[in-house]
Amino acid sequence: MAEQSDPVHLNNHHRDTLVSIFLHPTSHNIDWKAVISLLSVVGTVDETPAGKFHVTLGSEELVLTKPRNKDVDVQTVVDLRRMLTASGYAALVENVVNKGKEV
Which of 13, 21, 22, 50 could form a disulfide with 93 if both were Cys (CB 3.0 to 4.6 A apart)? Predict the structure, then answer.
């Protein structure tokens, strides 16, 4: 497994979700299940009995609530960007966008 400070290797679906999170303007159709799948690979996700999801990625922590529909809202995308940027994933997204998906 990669060190905490190094981004882990992602499959195509996870990379696509990661790129969608970092797109500007913010995408309004990022699937909740895809986000949870990505976060489970790069960090730890614990669901509480109350339906909250505690996400830990390196030293970053975030509490998410499952959306009513299948897509995450804009504020969740902003929170995810902050967390993923602090953990080094913004550079990975930049590489994917600039060089194609050969990362």
Answer: 22
Rounded Cα gap, residues 100 and 15, in angstroms: 11
* Interatomic CA distance for residues 92 and 101, integer angstroms: 10
Render pLDDT for 32-51 as a digit per residue (tens, 0 to 9). Answer: 999 999 999 999 999 999 88
Distance of CA 84 to the CA centre of its chain: 6
pTM of the full predicted structure? 0.84
Distant-in-sequence contacts of 21-25, Cβ < 8 A, 24+ apart: 21/77, 21/80, 21/81, 21/84, 22/81, 22/84, 22/90, 22/93
DSSP structure class, residue 101: S
Q: Is the per-residue pLDDT at 1 higher than 50?
A: no
Q: Residue 33: count other Cβ atoms within 10 Å of its Cβ.
A: 10
Q: Which helix (H) or strand (E) holds 62?
A: strand 60-65
CA 27 from centroid of its chain's CA atoms:
13
